[in-house]
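Dear colleague,

Thank you for sharing your sequence with our group. We've completed the structure prediction you requested, and as agreed, I am returning the results in plain text so they can be pasted directly into your records. Please verify that the sequence below matches your submission; if there's any discrepancy, let me know and we will rerun it promptly.
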Amino acid sequence: MIIPKLHYISQGSSPKEHLENIQKACTSGVELVQLRLKNVSEKKILKFAAAAREITSHFQTRLIINDHYKIAKAIKADGVHLGKTDTCPTIARTQLYTWQIIGGTANTLQDCETLIAKDVDYISLSPFRFTTTKDNLSPVLGLNGYTAIIEALKTETPIIGFGGITKEDVTDLLETGISGIAVSGEITRNFDSIRTFNQLLKASSTEEQRHTFT
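Please find the predicted structure tokens below.
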């Protein structure tokens, strides 16, 4: 299963605005969207997740639901992203369809090892730098943090960088060995940036392929 290199984590001051931003991200060519609604009732999340599924299906964009694996199953989303305090991936796996993907949040090498043991499909390793998107932010990793963790892991599991990432960071970040990035603020401010992010991320993958074949 191939995990897209660019994830858009939805943002907005209301659930409706999240949907509008998801629509814009899909129109601008993003391959994967994560619906991340916080402090909203489960009933409301189900409603907005179903609407997000309609939007993403139209564009053939993958949709991941943050936290709520039962909702991900109900609306047949492409998967679920589980934070450190959410349901254990092993439990979610028994409930989801076999084709649904599970991502997990990690901040340390130990977190990554735990998630790999639980067979997640990708790991979101964060934060790259300080960001206001999350409360109780874990220690910032930076390029050195990513490099150290990825070298120690030697894993096939895709590692996605997240936390205040801008276009200027992509080239250096890819050199750490990460598979892709998740972006929230930078894309919400300018959906045209998706094209640039995609170009920067794909440029690297053609490089890698060239090396593999020689």
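Summary note from our side: The chain is about 45% helix and 15% strand.

Kind regards,
the structure core
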